[in-house]
User: Which sequence fits this backbone?
């Protein structure tokens, strides 16, 4: 079965589109769904896996940044909140976009999540990658995504990941206040 695998970066109002090859995208799926209702005793484990995957992306971003002469990004709960909300919205809509129909613009979403007083924001989105390592590999092999990750003017990061219909959806939100 062929899956649609794509990434879309955004730096403030600049947009770009990139679709990775199957080799870049990685393979494998997971059977749990982070969006579907589950028994109460399963929900904490699901949230833990979600947070561990998000934290792993932050770790991988910071490894790339420090090895390329940038300082590590500080995790931001407000950017994570914005990234998670947008990731859930994309998964529910089944559409990967920086602005879904009826949704506020990317910069407004970040402000609405409480990340105020920012001077620069950027966003990378993706779907279909099976792990933090595979999505980071794809982002680093895309010039526009790589630019967002290695933009030394950015200081904070929030990551959201969600699994729906056996597909992982990813958002990285970056900012500088």
Assistant:
């Amino acid at each position: 079965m062929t899956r649609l695998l794509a990434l879309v970066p955004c730096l403030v109002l600049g947009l770009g589109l990139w679709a990775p090859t199957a080799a870049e995208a990685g393979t494998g799926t997971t059977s749990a769904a982070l969006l579907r209702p589950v028994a109460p005793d399963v929900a904490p484990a699901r949230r833990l896996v979600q947070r561990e995957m998000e934290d792993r992306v932050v770790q991988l971003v910071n490894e790339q940044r420090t090895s390329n002469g940038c300082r590590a990004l500080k995790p931001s709960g407000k950017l994570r909140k914005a990234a998670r909300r947008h990731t859930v919205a994309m998964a529910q809509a089944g559409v990967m976009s920086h602005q879904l129909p009826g949704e506020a613009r990317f910069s407004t979403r970040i402000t609405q999540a409480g990340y105020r007083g920012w001077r620069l924001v950027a966003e990378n989105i993706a779907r279909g990658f099976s792990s933090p390592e595979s999505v980071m590999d794809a982002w680093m092999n895309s010039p526009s995504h790589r630019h967002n990750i290695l933009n030394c003017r950015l200081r904070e990061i929030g990551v959201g990941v969600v699994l729906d219909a056996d597909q992982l959806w990813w958002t990285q939100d970056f900012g500088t206040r």
About this structure: The longest helix spans residues 43-67. Confidence is low (pLDDT under 50) at residues 1-33. The two ends are 44 Å apart (CA to CA).
